Amino acid sequence: MPLTKKTRHGNILSINAKVARNINRAIILNSIRERQPISRAKISDLTKLNKSTVSSIVASLIAEDLIIEEPDHSPRGIGRSPINLRVKRGKHYVGAIYFDSSKTELAVIDMDGTIISSAEIKTEIGNPSEFVSLCIKKLNVMRGQFHPHHFRGIGVTVAGIVDAAQSKVVYAPNLGWQDLDLGQVVRDYAPAIEMVTVENDAKASALAELLLGTHKVNPTNVVFLSVGAGIGAGIVVDNHILSGGSHAAGEFGHMTIVEGGERCTCGNQGCWEVYASDRATIRRYAAEKKLSQEQTANTSLESIIGLAAHGDDVAKEALTKSAQYIGLGIANIIRSFDPEVIIIGGTIIQAWELIYPEIMETVNKRGFFGKQRNTAILPTSLTGNPPLLGAAALSIRKIFTDYRIAL
């Protein structure tokens, strides 16, 4: 029996009562998560749901140990203080794994996005099944320190092309993975976990920013730009993350910005990440300093940022040149998608005061259409590594569901 009844034009005439309650439950739970602490009366005003519906659903959420009550201690006049609601911490944890070429990051993360415990291990590229087994064992040891009986879900992010619907890694060249059913591999070693989700690192980072970020913006069209060893993006249009016909939407790192330019690892020439990635910044700095191959291998972007902060002109020049190329790519993105906001994540944002003016100078020259509004360009507000928090957000989103109230 269908859950909904529609006209021939697709307008919903009626909806199954259980579905309606689930939607209302999600709206209320997200309202608490986003505006906590908040009272039942405020939820009713905010959501336009009647007070009895709010009270009934709140009672069930308390029974599920998803939320808790606490007295409102703010100053007020005569009368009983209202009871506020919060998401309950310390009860429902999710596991998060971020696979990158050099290191894999693991974390136990609370339902509100708080990182409870985290660890890094060297990525073993050879046998993905054995390495996933090692990661799951490590996660379970970390979780066991905090006594929940199991994870509510495990989210996995990968630096590569991912078919999220099938939980498969289509192609991750730096990991040597192709057509890997990563979701099934995780389930093999964590059979008790109901929710196992796999996604591309940049797309998941976009989700984490929307779900867990603290920027005081509520846009529906956003690009999250992940700048690291490569460059990728999560594109959000009308609150939906674009996947693409072959799951490669957002692979901007391989768009050509310098015709006939330097050779990229993908085989093409002049790709954006050849000029704007962390590796490009390090290579640029090393060439100017005439560092040996061994010295270059031991040079990190963090160290270059530190040198720039202490007045090293070569380090500053390497960073500002990368910022100009970042701005050039962003200008192309703006002309392609016209997003309201572009959020940048990656180590390079530690030098935000230095790179932001350079990015904006290039974007202002090349990206905007006449006198139309500007696209805001912001550093990520996430306090942890975005792809790792993105892995957690994959499970957290399912706990809260995707239903949200638009204000």
Please give a structural write-up:
The protein is an alpha+beta fold. The chain is about 40% helix and about 20% strand. The chain has helices spanning about 15-35, 40-45, 50-65, 130-145, 180-190, 200-210, 270-275, 280-290, 295, 300-310, 315-335, 350-365, 385-400, and strands at about 5, 10-15, 40, 65-70, 85, 95-100, 105-110, 115-120, 155-160, 160-165, 170, 175-180, 195-200, 220-225, 230-235, 240, 340-345, 375-380. The strands form five sheets. The chain has a five-stranded mixed beta sheet, sandwiched between helices. A five-stranded mixed beta sheet has the order 16-15-14-17-18. Strands 3-5-4 form a three-stranded antiparallel beta sheet. The longest helix has 25 residues, at about 315-335.
Question: TL;DR of this structure?
Answer:
The protein has 407 residues and is an alpha+beta fold.
Total beta-strand segments: 18
- The residue-averaged pLDDT reads 88
The structural class is alpha+beta
- How far apart are the first and last residues' alpha carbons, in Å? 33 Å
Strand content: 15-25%
Spatial strand arrangement across the major sheet: 8-7-6-9-13
Count of runs of 4 or more consecutive helical residues: 13
Roughly what percent helix? Answer: 40-55%
Assign an overall shape: globular
Query: How many strands, what sense, and barrel or not for the largest sheet?
Result: 5 strands, mixed
Low-confidence stretches: 1-9, 403-407
Give the C-alpha Rg. 23 Å
